[in-house]
Amino acid sequence: QVQLVESGGGLVQAGGSLRLSCVASARTFRMAWFRQGPGKEREFVGAITWSGDSTDYADSVKGRFTLSRDNAKNTMYLQMNSLKPEDTAVYYCAVGSGGRLASQYNYWGQGTQVTVSS
Fold first, then answer.
1. Closest CA to 105 of 57, 59, 42
2. pLDDT of 14-43, one tens digit each?
């Protein structure tokens, strides 16, 4: 059983930046971020392996968002730059076997709200 706690969400103007954090209760191999906007399906944002040498990003965030992790702290970060109103969503941290499907992840955090105003 792995507990995940996200933090760092908030309200920001378009073009601004935020950094999300996800702290895991145990060592994990592959961690990911998903998001769910109002009236939308949960969608993949990005994923990172234990070593951090392999990352995968959704096309919608590539070049603007950056994943990193501090394994000594069991923490994953999502640096979000050049934010757009369409990035508004609840962002969820997840741990699982990998891939871009929510069904491939077994453990989820409670989510953190990101709101981008225009």
1. 42
2. 999 999 999 999 888 899 999 999 999 999
